[in-house]
Fold:
Amino acid sequence: MTNSIEITFLGTSSAQPTPDRNTSSLALTIDGTSWLFDVGEATQHQILKVSNIKWGKIDRIFITHLHGDHVFGLPPLLCTATKNLTTTSSDTARHPIEIYGPSGLRKFLRQTLKLTRSFLGRDYMVHELLFPEDPVDHPDKKELYDFEQLGKNIQLQRSGENLYWEVIDGKSYKITAAPIKHSIPCLGYVFSENPLPGKIDIQVIKPILLRNKEALGIKNPMELVKKLQNGETLHLPDGTIIEPPPRRPGRKIVLLGDTYDPSGIIHLAMNADVLVHEATNALTSSDPPGTSYESVEEGAIRRGHSTARMAGKFAAQINAHKLILTHFSSRYRGCGSKIIEEIRMSAVETFGNDRVICAEDRLPNLFTQNIRKKSTQISTPFDAPPSVMYSPAFPTARPAEGDRSPTAGRTVNVSGNATIGYRRLWSILNANKIRQEVRRGRYYEKPTIRRKRIRREISEARFKEAIKKKVNTVLQMKARLVNGQ
Ligand SMILES: [Zn+2]
Structure:
């Protein structure tokens, strides 16, 4: 199971950089390993300015399409990312950096690196996601660049009406992609985590296991919690049956390339926790008086792009939980400015809720493990039907003779939220703080300092809670004394 997922935007401008925004790139950091999605020019400079992406930890790079503002940063980034890994370093023995993208990416990289005689400290390979009409690149060994290993040619697959590429099928997650419409072949990626073990309320289960300790004949009956978490049903000697908690759906993050119509990815993107969608244009107060929304949308579509309203509409269509807008036209200056808020509000209008954020460059830790789903899920042929996922069975069992404990012989539902662990509390506070800061359009506090501050706030909160508990106990004791018990 993956613990922390962070999205860091490294470039949020379209076509050309502005003083505040670089060209397209973002990093998805999963348990410390970073994957880049698009690498606009000077992405490497952006990485130098953030603390949560380490050169040696960039393992995979995904490209949505071959427009320059999405790939011009790739060759130099590869050189920098691998430069300190000398031939004697154990890092070079590692798996090559894997790069995924549309047809032509392999040639672009091979030619650029060859012509510039670039030296890499680690091998790379490009897996091309091919449309049926794309040529298949079959180079012989001599044609490959010195540091290149031949990647896979991944063919587009069809399931009914739906088209998709199966990109990675990992142990705890899966990456798929589907074509979306832009002025050139373009695709969107979907990261989906496998279902997570359900939550177990230890306070419910502990007394049940402890009272069966002797009959079970094991030293520590709490070991059985692990079995429960793995989905096993426990049949205890006193007749109690403990059903495992229902598995929780994993997190889903949808990262789209440039598009004026992403409907081709709907079948993979349903119920996304986070949708990253371009919003190149919007009708704002900076437009000449009398400009109609229709004319703005028509212009955006003509150039292969979307307006913020279109992004909001799509987010609603796939029942997304959170929408992040990016790829803003260089006309819209500033971060957290009035114009950017206008863009956000136009997406809020069509999305139908306020969970819309306009991305900013280098805003780290935007989303961590607290990415959670809405309770309402719309079922799609690609998801397990919700009714199966959410309905635990409650068969009853006969209590053992003479056992009077209230749960004996019952089937016990152990899923619950009774205690909030330190990590969970931390992530909630952290996310709320960041959200507030983003809303106000300002940010900056070094991540290390922020972490310390939030930790302090948590310990204060816990201290207050402990005092409250003590006071309550004393009051109860007092009441009992008064009642003469
Ligand atoms: Zn483009």
